[in-house]
Write a structure and sequence with these properties.
Layout: H1 2-26, H2 32-35, E1 48-55, E2 58-67, E3 74-78, E4 102-107, H3 125-139, E5 146-151, H4 153-165, E6 171-175, H5 181-192, H6 198-210, H7 216-231, H8 241-247, H9 252-258, E7 286-291, H10 298-307, E8 311-316, H11 323-326, H12 328-343
Helix pairs in contact: 3-4, 6-7
Protein name: Proline iminopeptidase-family hydrolase
Signal peptide: 1-17
GO molecular function: peptidase activity
Length: 351
């Protein structure tokens, strides 16, 4: 009997050890020296790589920069605007690298450090999708490691990329962007507009009716009454420097062509964009992020997570459009949990 008991104990110990080994191999810890090692041959550039892309109007260069090195988790970031820069994502450096998540910044064509052809014909959603695919190929990202996060306009681009190329993705994050621009416009008019002082709203509408968007009074009214309440709920004079720096570099040609002249509602080429009916086609693990005070309806964002095949929803109760700043702990904790969950095989992650 003692021999049988010893055998059972030995087998149990072995089984436990095997399970622990499986866990370790599924989610390996990366040594600091490995994570930050620059393995690029030749002259080091701090992770910066210029990627040449082909377009109907010729070849151009777009700017990318990676922070960290994890063969299993590579997060490519698509900025919003349209026409802003990667710079407002810099807050992620305070959270994600410490968790072994490799960050990849990328300025889309016409943005930041990338070439600017100054041709409105280039500001096209299908063309940008092909640009992202060319960047993916150049950076050697694939379904074993490629996570794509799109924020605001970047969320439209990320979703559109996934509809065509989800086979290349390991995980998708749609941050603070509804999947229907008509619904976004409706939310702005029927929900957000009603939160304005009626006199302020009337003056904003009067300026818009004249098309007088360069009038200083226009942004003077929008900044405290809209941007400070629904874009970033940190006092305007204390907005984070990376956010101000990024917004200060917005390509107005790109912004107005795609979005229209104001964040308060939508116009431009994206006016009729609507992909809600197609959401069930997405099988890649998808995280949808919404904020209570966002310009985007948080209930719509929850709906997105319910309609895709493998959806997770992150709700930021203190957050607005820039929830990565004004509800930072909720945003970063949820994002990290989602990525790590997908990395160990979870398709839906409880947040």
């Amino acid at each position: 009997m003692k021999k049988i008991a010893l055998i059972i104990i030995a087998l149990s110990t072995c089984l436990f050890a095997c399970k622990q080994a499986d866990k370790t191999s599924a989610s390996p810890e990366i040594a600091l020296s490995t994570f930050f090692k620059d393995s690029v041959a030749g002259v080091k550039t701090g992770g910066i790589q210029m990627v040449q892309i082909s377009t109907p109007k010729g070849k151009f260069n777009v700017w990318t920069k990676k922070i960290g090195n994890n063969p299993k988790i590579k997060l490519l970031l698509l900025n919003g605007g349209p026409g802003a820069t990667h710079e407002y994502f810099e807050c992620m450096e305070s959270f994600l690298p410490a968790e072994g998540i490799e960050l990849i910044y990328y300025d889309q064509l016409g943005c930041g450090n990338s070439d600017n052809p100054k041709d409105t014909a280039m500001w096209s959603l299908p063309r940008y999708v092909e640009e992202v695919e060319q960047v993916r190929q150049a950076l050697k990202l694939d379904s074993s490691n490629f996570y794509l996060l799109g924020h605001s306009w970047g969320g439209i681009l990320a979703a559109e990329y996934a509809f065509k190329y989800q086979k290349n993705l390991k995980g998708l994050v749609i941050s603070n962007m509804m999947m229907s621009c008509p619904d976004y416009g409706k939310y702005a008019n029927e929900v957000l507009a009603k939160q304005f002082d009626p006199k302020v709203l009337a003056r904003i509408r009067a300026i818009e009716a004249k098309g007088d968007f360069t009038n200083p009074e226009y942004m003077g009214l929008l900044m405290p009454n809209f941007y400070g309440k629904h874009i970033c709920r940190i006092p305007l004079d204390k907005w984070p420097e990376p956010l101000n720096r990024s917004f200060g570099k917005i390509n107005q040609s790109l912004y107005v062509t795609m979005q229209g002249p104001s964040e308060f509602g939508i116009a431009g080429k994206l006016l009729k964009w609507d992909r809600v009916a197609d959401l069930p086609k997405l099988s890649v693990p998808t995280l949808s992020i919404g904020g209570e005070f966002d310009t985007m309806d948080p209930k719509h964002m929850q709906m997105v997570a319910g309609k895709v095949q493998n959806g997770s929803y992150l709700y930021c109760p203190k957050g607005s459009h820039m929830s990565m700043y004004d509800d930072q702990e909720t945003y970063m904790t949820g994002l990290i949990k989602f990525i790590k969950g997908v990395n160990v095989g979870e398709k839906k992650v409880a947040l």
